[in-house]
Design goal:
The complex is a heterodimer of chains A (240) and B (300). With 240 residues, chain A is mostly helical. Chain A contains ten helices and no strands. Chain A is globular and about 55 Å long. By secondary structure, chain B is an alpha/beta fold. Chain B has nine helices and 13 strands. In chain B, the strands form three sheets. In chain B, strands 5-6-7-3-8-9 form a six-stranded mixed sheet, sandwiched between helices. A four-stranded antiparallel sheet of chain B has the order 11-12-10-13, covered by helices on one side.
């Protein structure tokens, strides 16, 4: 797995695919924190929600980082499409988590908050960023050239899914009570943002629950995606 | 008919040893489009198989099925053991932003090869295929032929027991083709089974290989007498070459079935397939220079 991660790191960095999502995310952070006196956990709610979107973009770019022929050759050496694809998702998660670490430490170290955050806030803030980064990456795997014939439609579907995730609370309110459970299928972004926004009012169990929910959803989503790839193998839609 | 509804045992390319790979009644469709149908083939250690067929006939699909990259729609692909080592060279490698050594080192490490032997093997392959090792030039700056060499090197990295090559000679100059042939002959002699999709004639490799053709999704043995009689299409070879005047008469006497013509100092000889091997022996002995040798299916 380490050899795969090293190879993917070289492919990803030298492809410059990381450029657009990374720089847009960093630019948003720099812009938001141009002024001081930002509330700690509310700011983390914003930066982690942005990281969820950024991680989805990074995951999308990472899963298709290799050209089809290149991927076939790599697959014969890795001997498992599940291992290769899992390494891609893991790398994307690590990359996005590094951005999350920056998002947590940058405002704290440069005094952009209205007060100095405690270690617990820093730790929990980082965990929320990491969990939402994993959630974004796990969704992205589904919307790739391996499962969608058109990259445009894949991106469109991913954007729609992300929008639904952010609007899950409103959707739940609009749905009849009997269909309320449908929102469980949506990525649990809203509970995480709600927990960060109302952090001070939550019990300690309630602070951990959204992280567990996000990680559980990400694990199930990634697992199902890898199982789908295992069944399908490298059979690109429309390819001969 | 070997590809009829009643499935027959897979045809081995030669011997009775346990096959390295067996395809049994394999079919592959994309939607309503059938690419391969009831393909059966088994290849033993040290054997080589040539796949021929027109563009889109399913050669690459068959190689991908054998490599396990795609799954068959029907039938089974059985390898000699789950741990069978195999190399696969796709028809071309994209231009990557890394040097050949970096790329090959990554592939070898992913395959789990020890660092020391991997470094030695990479140097050996660079030397065998005449590509400078230690070059700082990235693959994005490589020519088509140089990329193809790197592609072949990655397939041969781990001394595979089964080598699957899609148009391996594409883009290679004659000198490089000879070097690749030497490498393939060497690997075959060491027991590797080789399945290669080829377009161009390659007498030295054909001589040691079983040739199959994909036609309308079905795999048929090219040099099978039964098949030729069934199709009623005689196979012949068209040779262009140079031959000293003094030697022509003797060869013409020995091979009365050959049809001779000349354009300037270049001879053209049409030969029935069964006489080709013996004729080539006489041609080389008589100091002939081969310009081209083409396989054809209709008499001129």
């Amino acid at each position: 797995m380490i050899a795969l991660l090293e190879y993917l790191h070289r492919c990803f960095i030298r492809s410059y695919r990381y450029g657009a999502p990374t720089f847009i995310y960093l630019a948003i952070l720099l812009l938001v924190y141009t002024t001081g006196s930002n509330p700690v956990m509310d700011s983390y709610a914003f930066s982690s929600s942005m990281l969820f979107v950024t991680a989805a973009a990074i995951g999308c770019l990472m899963i298709d980082v290799e050209a089809a022929n290149q991927e076939m050759a790599t697959l014969t050496h890795a001997r498992s499409l599940v291992r290769l694809s899992a390494a891609k998702l893991l790398y994307a998660w690590l990359f996005a988590s590094a951005l999350g670490l920056f998002a947590v430490l940058y405002p704290a170290l440069l005094g952009r908050f209205d007060r100095l955050p405690g270690f617990e806030e820093l730790g929990i803030g980082l965990l929320y960023h990491i969990a939402l980064a994993g959630l974004g990456v796990s969704l992205a795997g589904w919307f790739s050239a391996k499962l969608f014939e058109s990259r445009f439609y894949a991106m469109l579907a991913l954007c729609a899914w992300i929008a639904l995730a952010f609007g899950s609370r409103g959707i739940a309110g609009a749905l009849p009570d009997s269909l309320d459970w449908l929102t469980v299928l949506l990525p649990p972004v809203h509970p995480a943002l709600h927990a960060l926004t109302f952090y001070a009012e939550l019990s300690s169990g309630a602070k951990w629950l959204p992280i567990s929910a996000a990680l559980l959803y990400a694990g199930v989503s990634a697992g199902l995606m890898l199982a789908a790839l295992h069944k399908r193998r490298l059979d690109y839609p429309g390819g001969e | 008919m070997r590809n009829g509804k009643k499935r027959r045992a897979p045809v081995s390319a030669a011997g009775a040893a346990k096959p390295v790979i067996t395809l049994d009644g394999v079919g592959r469709s994309y939607g309503a489009r059938m690419i391969l149908s009831e393909v059966s083939l088994s290849v033993d250690r040290g054997e080589s198989v040539i796949l021929r067929g027109s563009n889109g006939s399913g050669k690459s699909t068959l190689l991908k099925l054998a490599a396990g990259i795609i799954a068959p729609s029907s039938g089974t692909v059985v390898k000699a053991s789950p741990g069978l080592t195999f190399g696969f060279a796709p028809d071309r490698l994209p231009r990557l932003r890394m040097t050949s050594e970096e790329y090959l080192t990554h592939m070898g490490r992913i395959a789990g090869l020890p660092r020391t032997s991997l470094r030695r093997r990479i140097e050996e392959l660079h030397s065998l295929l005449d590509l400078p090792s230690g070059s700082l030039s990235m693959l994005i700056h490589y020519s088509k032929g140089m990329l193809q060499k790197v592609n072949l090197m990655q397939a041969c990295l781990g001394q595979p027991e089964l080598l699957l090559l899609d148009e391996p000679f594409s883009g290679l100059d004659p000198d490089s083709s000879d070097k690749l042939l030497t490498l393939l002959h060497g690997m075959r002699a060491q027991g590797a089974a080789v399945i290669a999709a080829l377009h161009d004639p390659l007498p030295s490799w054909e001589a040691v290989s079983a040739t199959y053709r994909l036609r309308e999704g079905r795999l048929v043995r090219e040099d099978s007498d039964d098949r030729r009689q069934e199709r009623h299409v005689p196979v012949f070879y068209e040779l262009d070459g140079l031959l000293p005047e003094a030697s022509r008469g003797a060869l013409a006497r020995d091979f009365p079935q050959a049809e001779w013509s000349a354009a300037g100092n270049v001879l053209r000889v049409h030969l029935p397939a069964e006489a080709c091997e013996a004729f080539m022996g006489g041609f080389w002995s008589a100091g002939g220079t081969l310009l081209s040798l083409k396989r054809k299916e209709e008499m001129p």
